[in-house]
């Protein structure tokens, strides 16, 4: 009972109590004299155990066939089958081999005692029986039987726990190795045999370092380490170790999982991600080139229209005016036709100039936003009937060409959208330069983007184009749209910030 | 003799004998080989026990019993259709030829003479238990095999 004072608290303690009810034990009493039986029963009454009385050796054997006893009090001198003969039979059976036999006898001679002890007697009680002595002797065997019973039950509980543990170990999807603190394998499951290619017997006693070379005692965690099979092949594995303090010292349980498959999948995903990144980069490069080529094309067209066609038209006009002012004999019809031709020519020249300027305003390169923006907004208002409110420092400095071009193109795209899609009759344009950036903000009071988005894919392309152009210069682009209007904001970096993300496109252009 | 004889381990044996000493001694020996032992001290009790536990694999039958002897008990058991093929080994004190025939006539499968030679007893038990598990019909008139 001393061990119960330092019982494990909690469930373990509760189980132990539950497993040991205070059951009565059985004591077998064998005597051919009924008076003796009665007096012995009375003497043992206070022990409060179950007393089974037999009047002969045969009757005793009958009880013994079906029952286990804590002790047998066996009268030696009985007719037919005496105590010694009965004891011999009792001892021959495995089930009663160790049941304590106390002989009751009146003889104290040595030969008699030797025979008794030889037949497995644990003690003799001499008649007349002294009740106190009888009681105290039997009490010892009752206690012995109880403690044996307790041990049996504990052994059963342990065996069950062990069985559970083993089946858990076997059912685990991972290889399980239990090692000493020095790494010596003391227990392995069949998954471990399969994983490492060793037999169970080969694994036991080996050091865990044989299969997991970089295993360390300090690694009480989940980690990825390489494992080695018996045939020398290696595989990546995930190892989770946990310490267990036992009576035999520190034990370490390690669960080892083969993660080759996971590693391969991770590798595949990494490769595919890399491919996606590359494809994306190529796409962006392509779209930058398209923007740049289109800009260049517009510039070339604009210049062509302005410089070449414009010059031709100007020359034609000069010639016509010369004809008109000389006193040539023109019929009134001819004169009227000439005047009309000059008027048409002037209109054509004006339109070509507007078109060429919209394609690429020469003012942009020469003076910058300061001149181009007011000019563009005026002509836009004239053509669209939309009233534009401009907020821009009138002394805005010349910004780098590519920034000004971007601001101008985004502004153009925004206003085209306002005109074509928003239904707004007014728009507000704000351009404000700061130390390291310039911001363009175009606000309308139209019906917003969300309601139109799906209906016009062209506008989607336009927005993508703006976004791409801004991104190309390392800037920031955002659209906030609702039912009461849309705000487009583009922030473009200046100075060293420009084109940090840009691809050098000049080499692509002729 | 092998321990944990696989042919006999966990088999159920009914010992019918009027002498409890014989029952106890046989029980000790049979249990030592992981055989489960039931017992009855007379023929009537034996038949009663057999009705309650029909999964008995083999009967060891003492012939010399008062009141209802082994012949009578064997005949009574054979009358029950379910027990017609149940191996019954007669244990007889006399090694006389007439006695042996009488056992087989009464319906015993085989016989072993007393005092029992353990090796012989186990050999006979093994034969009859394995015959039964092979579902070979037992010919009542067949003689001793050992």
Produce a short descriptive summary.
By secondary structure, chain A is α/β, with parallel strands linked by helices.
Could you give the topology of this structure?
The complex is a heterodimer of chains A (510) and B (146).
Chain A: H1 11-19, E1 26-30, H2 34-44, E2 50-54, H3 57-66, E3 71-75, H4 83-92, E4 101-105, H5 110-118, E5 121-126, H6 131-171, E6 175-180, E7 185-188, H7 190-196, H8 200-203, E8 222-228, E9 234-246, E10 249-258, H9 260-325, H10 332-359, H11 362-366, H12 369-384, E11 387-391, H13 401-422, E12 426-433, E13 437-444, H14 457-472, E14 476-482, E15 485-493
Chain B: E1 12-16, H1 20-31, E2 36-40, H2 43-52, E3 58-62, H3 70-79, E4 88-92, H4 97-106, E5 110-113, H5 118-133
The chain pair with the largest interface is: A-B, 11 and 10 residues
Give helix and strand order of chain A, one letter per element, not per position: HEHEHEHEHEHEEHHEEEHHHHEHEEHEE
Helix residue percentage of chain A: 40-55%
Shape of chain A: rod-shaped
* Residue fraction in strands of chain A: 15-25%
Low-pLDDT residue intervals, each spanning 5 or more residues of chain A: 1-20, 499-510
Number of beta strands of chain B: 5
**Main sheet: strands, sense, barrel of chain A:** 5 strands, parallel
Radius of gyration of chain B: 14 Å
Structure in words:
By secondary structure, chain A is an alpha/beta fold. Chain A is 50% helix and 20% strand. Chain A starts with 10 loop residues before the first helix and ends in a 17-residue tail after the last strand. In chain A, 22% of the residues are buried. The N terminus and C terminus of chain A are likely disordered. Chain B has 146 residues and is of the alpha/beta class. Chain B contains five helices and five strands; from the N terminus they run βαβαβαβαβα. In chain B, helix 2 runs parallel beside helix 3. The longest helix of chain B has 16 residues. Chain B is globular and about 35 Å long. Classes of the chains: A alpha/beta (510), B alpha/beta (146). At the A-B interface, helix 3 of A face helix 1 of B.
């Amino acid at each position: 009972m001393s061990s119960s004072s330092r019982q494990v608290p909690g469930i373990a303690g509760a189980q132990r109590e539950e497993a040991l009810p205070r059951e009565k034990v059985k004591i077998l009493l064998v005597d051919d004299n009924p008076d003796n039986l009665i007096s012995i029963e009375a003497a043992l009454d206070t022990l409060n155990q179950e007393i089974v009385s037999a009047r002969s050796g045969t009757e005793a054997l009958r009880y013994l066939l079906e029952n286990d006893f804590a002790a047998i009090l066996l009268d030696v001198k009985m007719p037919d089958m005496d105590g010694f003969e009965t004891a011999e039979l009792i001892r021959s059976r495995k089930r009663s081999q160790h049941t304590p036999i106390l002989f009751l006898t009146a003889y104290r001679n040595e030969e008699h005692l030797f025979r008794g002890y030889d037949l497995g007697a644990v003690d003799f009680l001499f008649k007349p029986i002294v009740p106190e002595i009888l009681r105290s002797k039997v009490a010892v065997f009752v206690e012995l039987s109880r403690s044996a019973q307790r041990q049996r039950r504990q052994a059963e509980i342990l065996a069950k726990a062990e069985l559970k543990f083993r089946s858990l170990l076997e059912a685990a999807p991972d290889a399980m190795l239990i090692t000493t603190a020095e790494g010596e394998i003391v227990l392995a499951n069949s998954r471990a045999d399969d994983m490492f290619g060793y037999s169970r017997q080969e694994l036991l006693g080996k050091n865990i370092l044989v299969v997991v070379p970089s295993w360390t005692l300090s690694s009480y965690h989940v980690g990825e380490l390489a494992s080695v099979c018996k045939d020398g092949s290696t595989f990546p594995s995930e190892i989770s170790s946990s310490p267990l303090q036992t009576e035999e010292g520190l034990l370490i349980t390690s669960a080892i999982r083969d993660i080759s498959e996971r590693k391969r999948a991770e590798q595949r995903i990494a490769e595919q991600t890399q491919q996606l990144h590359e494809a994306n980069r190529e796409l962006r490069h392509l779209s930058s080139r398209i923007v740049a080529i289109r800009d260049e094309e517009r510039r070339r067209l604009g210049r062509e229209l302005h410089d070449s066609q414009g010059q031709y038209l100007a020359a034609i006009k000069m010639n016509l005016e010369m004809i008109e002012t000389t006193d040539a004999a023109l019929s009134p019809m001819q004169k009227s036709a000439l005047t009309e031709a000059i008027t048409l020519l002037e209109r054509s020249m004006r339109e070509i100039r507007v078109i060429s300027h919209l394609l690429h305003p020469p003012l942009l390169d020469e003076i910058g936003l300061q001149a181009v923006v007011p000019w563009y907004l005026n002509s836009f208002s004239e053509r669209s009937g939309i009233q534009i409110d401009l907020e821009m420092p009138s002394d805005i400095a010349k910004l780098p060409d590519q920034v000004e071009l971007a601001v101008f193109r985004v502004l153009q795209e925004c206003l085209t959208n306002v005109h074509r899609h928003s239904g707004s009759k007014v728009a507000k344009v704000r351009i404000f330069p700061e130390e390291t950036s310039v911001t363009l903000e175009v606000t309308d009071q139209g019906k917003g983007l969300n309601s139109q988005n799906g209906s016009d894919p062209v506008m989607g392309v336009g927005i993508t184009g703006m976004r791409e152009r801004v991104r190309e210069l390392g800037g920031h682009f955002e659209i906030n749209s609702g039912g009461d209007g849309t705000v487009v904001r583009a922030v473009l970096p200046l100075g060293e910030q420009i084109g940090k993300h840009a691809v050098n496109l000049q080499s692509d252009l002729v | 003799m092998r321990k944990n004889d696989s042919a006999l381990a966990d088999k159920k044996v009914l010992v019918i004998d009027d002498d409890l000493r014989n029952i106890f001694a046989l029980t000790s020996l049979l249990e030592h080989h992981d055989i489960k032992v039931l017992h009855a001290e007379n023929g009537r009790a034996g038949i009663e026990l057999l009705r309650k536990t029909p999964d008995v694999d083999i009967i060891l039958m003492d012939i010399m019993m008062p009141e209802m002897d082994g012949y009578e008990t064997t005949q009574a058991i054979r009358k029950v259709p379910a027990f017609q093929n149940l191996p019954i080994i007669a244990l007889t004190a006399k090694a006389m030829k007439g006695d042996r025939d009488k056992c087989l006539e009464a319906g015993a499968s085989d016989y072993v003479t007393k005092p029992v030679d353990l090796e012989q007893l186990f050999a006979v038990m093994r034969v009859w238990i394995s015959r039964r598990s092979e579902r070979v019909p037992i010919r009542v008139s067949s003689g001793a095999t050992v």
